[in-house]
Specification:
It is a single chain. The protein has 501 residues and is α+β, with helices and mostly antiparallel strands. The longest helix is centred in the first third of the chain and has 25 residues, at 92-116. The strands form five sheets. The chain has a ten-stranded mixed β-sheet with strand order 11-10-9-8-7-15-3-4-13-14. A two-stranded antiparallel sheet has the order 1-2. The protein is 32% helix and 22% strand.
Length: 501
């Protein structure tokens, strides 16, 4: 009977409803209170200050998702790279360097949160002055609490236990979605995609197509990256401390030429901004590449990574049922440098964390066994002499898939548009048309309005809103197993040095 058939199906619909709801709930790092909250002394007052700031940011929904809070220490935030040192900071110098870097992450996030507070909260008439005062107090109170919290070894050990970073995969959708079964289907789809990419990828320039090339401004300037990397001062953890001039020189030295097969405005790179109606848009009149410095670990070495990130207005839908199309699209091209300043590895992903590709240089050898459930797509990089050549990253129209990676002589005259550089952190506080500021990313790390229909199919993987654009540091790279773009051990999981057994 029809009634009985519908009745028998209701548990399925209930499970599907709750699974989809849970799949849309991202890992959000909620504020934390200091253990000194409520004390009448100076550290107690600073603890109350941080609690007040967090309450205001939470109420205004401007909590920044770029790094994770450390429970019990509101002046510290951590990412996966810094969390990897938690068991390696026994000495006072190493511990101090570790804490200082976590404090710097918090100060960076709070600058964005303070700038994004409604003007009625941050101060209306002298907002910039009020913001400067608040940021100064963030630094001073952080230093005061830091001095009080870590004055003996037992307290330092307590922090080490609290420094954890959750992964970007939700357990409940995987359980409800029968992940062991659906994971096999997803793995089959990934294998088919790998085969297609291997068939179409080339280290030669594309032929017979109309493309737009974007080259960096002042691309003729050159500074020897080897000297910069070799001479940089490192802290007690071995992490380089690049001054602004050195950062600028490194990003300039390895800046790519973006080559996009062009069909319409959706193939032009631009600057993200907030439009009227609280909608994100990409101003393609302004060609911008966003830069972000990161680090990774390779055995005993700490290596420098240069991230170059671009944005497109959309990946247009082919039809109403297109699973992958939607507003906003973008690509992250990353260069990992060896400790002599030479390129070791190139990588690309889309800003959803999708379509990861690794392009090792001849300095690396692929491991026979790679400890990832979803094997990475590894393609050979072209030979390139950085002092004489620059890398072209060539993409398809509409999908913006990277199809070619090839060198171009630096002195070659090209018909190109020019792009400028901007700090990626600028995206954490963009101007609003009516005044004030707002991050490009929500508290869930996702760019509003960028969700894709594929989330309705891939939710059993546990990835939050697959296909949506997200903030750097929050990229789940694989649908099978667990793997993050900022995994500090990814390089050594995939490769060894070519001269090593």
């Amino acid at each position: 009977m029809p009634g009985r058939r519908c009745l028998s199906l209701w548990p399925f619909f209930v499970v599907a409803f709750f699974a989809l709801h849970l799949a849309g709930c991202a890992v959000v790092s909620r504020p934390t209170r200091s253990l000194r909250y409520g004390d009448a002394d100076a550290p107690g007052r600073c603890a109350e200050f941080f609690a007040s700031m967090d309450q205001q940011a939470s109420k205004a929904r401007v909590l920044d998702a770029g790094a994770f809070r450390v429970r019990g220490y509101p002046y510290l935030r951590v990412n996966r790279f810094l969390a990897s040192f938690r068991n390696e900071v026994a000495g006072n110098d190493a511990f101090a360097a570790w804490v200082n870097r976590m404090q710097a992450l918090d100060q960076e996030a709070r600058r964005a949160e303070i700038a994004n507070l409604p003007r009625a909260v941050a101060g209306s008439s002298t907002a910039s002055a009020d913001q400067a005062e608040l940021n100064l107090r963030v630094a001073c109170c952080g230093n005061l609490l830091k001095a009080a919290d870590f004055n003996d070894g037992e307290k330092q050990a307590a922090l080490q236990k609290n420094v954890t970073v959750p992964d970007e995969y939700l357990v409940a959708p995987r359980v409800l979605g029968l992940y062991p079964l659906t994971g096999l289907l997803v793995s089959h789809g990934v294998s088919n995609w790998h085969a297609e990419v291997r068939r179409t990828f080339s280290t030669e320039p594309p032929v017979g197509r109309q493309s737009i090339r974007y080259a960096p401004e002042n691309s003729s300037q050159w500074a020897d990256p080897g000297q910069i990397v070799k001479r940089v001062k490192r802290d007690a953890l071995g992490i380089p401390n690049y001054p602004p001039s050195a950062r600028k020189a490194l990003f300039s030295a390895f800046a790519p030429i973006w080559e996009v097969r062009s069909a319409a405005g959706y193939d032009r790179i631009g600057e993200p901004s907030w439009a009227a109606g609280s909608e994100l848009t990409i101003d393609t009149r302004k060609h911008v590449t966003y830069t972000l410095l990161s680090f990774t670990r390779f055995g005993e070495e700490i290596l420098t990574q240069l991230n170059y990130i671009i944005w497109f207005p959309e990946r247009p839908r082919a039809n109403a049922l297109d699973l992958y199309g939607g507003l906003l699209d973008g690509v992250n091209y990353r260069v990992t440098l060896d400790n002599d300043g030479e390129p070791l590895l190139y990588e690309t992903i889309h800003n959803c964390g999708c379509y990861y590709k690794a392009y090792p240089t001849r300095r690396l050898k692929v491991r026979k066994e790679i400890d990832y459930a979803e094997k990475p797509l590894i393609l050979q990089a072209p030979d390139l002499t950085p002092s004489k050549e620059t890398m072209a990253v060539a993409m398809e129209s509409r999908t913006h898939y990277v199809r070619h990676l090839y060198p171009i002589p630096r002195l070659m005259q090209l018909e190109t548009a020019r792009y400028s550089f901007a700090d990626y952190n600028r995206l954490r506080s963009l101007p609003l048309p009516g005044g004030g500021h707002r991050s490009m990313f929500g508290e869930d790390s996702l760019a509003p309005g960028s969700e894709r229909l594929e989330r309705l199919i891939l939710w059993p993987t546990g990835v939050v809103s697959p296909g949506a654009m997200r903030q750097w540091g929050r990229h789940a790279v694989a649908f099978v197993g667990k793997w993050h773009f900022d995994d500090p051990f990814a390089l050594e999981k995939m490769f060894t040095k070519a001269d090593c057994e």
